[in-house]
Amino acid sequence: MWLGVGLIGLFLVLALVFFMGHGGCLIAGYNTASPEEKARYDFRKLSRHMGIFSLGMACALGICFLTEATGTIGVPLILALVGFVLLGNYWCLAKRTKPGAGFVVGMVMYLVFVGVLSVFLYSGEVTFYMDEDGIILDASFTKQAAFYMEDIESVALTDDFHVGFTKAGVNNAKVEAGRYHNQTLGDYWLYARTQAKHYLIFETTRGTYVYGDNDVVSMQKYVTEIQEAIAS
């Protein structure tokens, strides 16, 4: 928490420095460039460009550290800001010329990287399957869990649940799954839609499993059927 606040404060200070037309020594590449190379850039444009980037990073980090919209807003905003910095190599030239082959190749590679990363950030499904024998929990990017009804010691439905943090798994805009840890359960296995409103908590002979979804009617039905099955 304090690390996040410190980073946000740092980027706000950097934004102020850049908007005041200073901070050339803080810009990687520019600070070590030769006088001839520095002359190719308009420093007023460059400092303003970096000021916008720093302010954007402060906002992005605020979203990541202080809200639950890391995957949906925070990370995409950071990716956009990185692309914004790369474009500054062209936008901030004192005299714009046709972009060189290196710049074009670099931007294409970055766009490919963003495309591949976006597939991971914005894809995934969570599946809950139950029959008279047992339950199967499955989610993209993590291993499937299956257990028999006789393995279930208790089941509870709650809408007051904090997933905690991931120890091994995925946490993107659609899926939160894998090995997680929170203060209430300790280590447990999570299979949930991101920012689910309702959670089923299974205490089993093999550990704790949690399923998260927004369909409370179906989840209430699951609880009733499971309780009847383990009571018989």
Which descriptors apply to this entry?
single chain, 232 residues, alpha+beta, three-stranded antiparallel sheet, 6 helices
Describe it for me?
By secondary structure, this protein is of the alpha+beta class. It has helices at 2-19, 35-38, 43-66, 70-91, 101-121, 216-231, and strands at 126-130, 134-139, 145-148, 152-158, 165-171, 175-182, 186-193, 198-204, 207-213. Strands 4-8-9-7-6-5 form a six-stranded mixed beta sheet, covered by helices on one side. Helix 4 (70-91) runs antiparallel to helix 5 (101-121). The two termini are 47 Å apart. The mean pLDDT is 88.
Q: What layout of secondary structure does this protein have?
A:
Elements: H1 2-19, H2 35-38, H3 43-66, H4 70-91, H5 101-121, E1 126-130, E2 134-139, E3 145-148, E4 152-158, E5 165-171, E6 175-182, E7 186-193, E8 198-204, E9 207-213, H6 216-231
Parallel strand pairs: 7-9
Antiparallel strand pairs: 1-2, 2-3, 4-8, 5-6, 6-7, 8-9
Helix pairs in contact: 1-3, 3-4, 4-5
